[in-house]
Design goal:
Blueprint lengths: L19 E7 L3 E3 L3 E9 L6 E8 L6 E6 L4 E7 L9 E8 L4 E4 L3 E4 L3 E7 L9 E9 L6 E8 L7 E9 L4 E7 L12 H5 L9
Parallel strand pairs: 2-9
Antiparallel strand pairs: 1-3, 3-6, 4-5, 4-7, 7-8, 7-9, 10-11, 11-14, 12-13
């Protein structure tokens, strides 16, 4: 787009601004089969309400559906669902068409990965005291060897206001996850009422 202006500045002029498609990008680096993926289209000098058409495709001919919308503030954000039967390792992209502005283009391509399933998650013990070393393990399906994971541990609250007490990084090894954690109670134990004190109010002590 030419931004050079050579006319006199003390006179009123009428100029025509040319519309342009700046970018069409996925908002993530990979696509998971069976899940939605967000994308973003950026334009310049395209009026609010201008029609936009999105067509999802893949390198191996899989159709991802079509979306119709309107440009707002030179931007359009949407989602395309990656069919569950999309071939793993395929690359997906989308085509953009702005018919009122005579613009079209194609997005970048991202690879399709299988959905990740986490099963058989368990602790190494049913109970623990402060200072005990525990192991949390699970079976991982669909993640490549060495995939980074983040394990978040919460203290359960019966009112569903669970407190996060630990955040531990690990990786997938042989389709499994295993991590060790030393249990530490985060609150002051002196503030915890005993079971006898709770019974005065017809309540029972609840283990964290």
């Amino acid at each position: 787009m030419n931004t050079k202006f050579t006319k006199a500045t003390d006179t009123q002029h009428q100029i025509k601004l040319e519309s342009s498609l700046i970018s069409a990008m996925w908002r993530t680096g990979a696509a998971i089969a069976g899940e939605k993926v967000s994308f973003e289209v950026l334009t310049a000098f395209v009026g609010n309400g201008a029609d936009i058409k999105i067509t999802g495709k893949s390198d191996k001919g899989k159709k991802l559906g079509k979306i119709k919308g309107e440009i707002k503030n030179n931007k359009y954000i949407g989602e395309l669902e990656i069919p569950a039967d999309t071939q793993l390792g395929d690359f997906v992209y989308f085509e953009v068409d702005l018919p009122q502005n005579g613009l079209n283009g194609q997005s970048n391509k991202i690879q399709v990965y299988p959905p990740i399933e986490i099963t058989n998650m368990k602790w190494s013990a049913k109970e623990a005291r402060e200072g005990d070393l525990l192991t949390l393990s699970a079976d991982i399906k669909g993640a490549e060897e060495g995939t980074d994971l983040m394990v978040l541990i919460y203290e359960y609250d019966k009112d569903a206001i669970h407190d996060r007490i630990a955040q531990l990084p690990t990786t997938v090894k042989s389709k499994k996850m295993e991590i060790s954690w030393e249990y530490q109670y985060i609150d002051r134990t002196g503030d915890i009422p005993t079971d006898g004190e709770m019974k005065k109010y017809n309540k029972n002590y609840a283990h964290p």
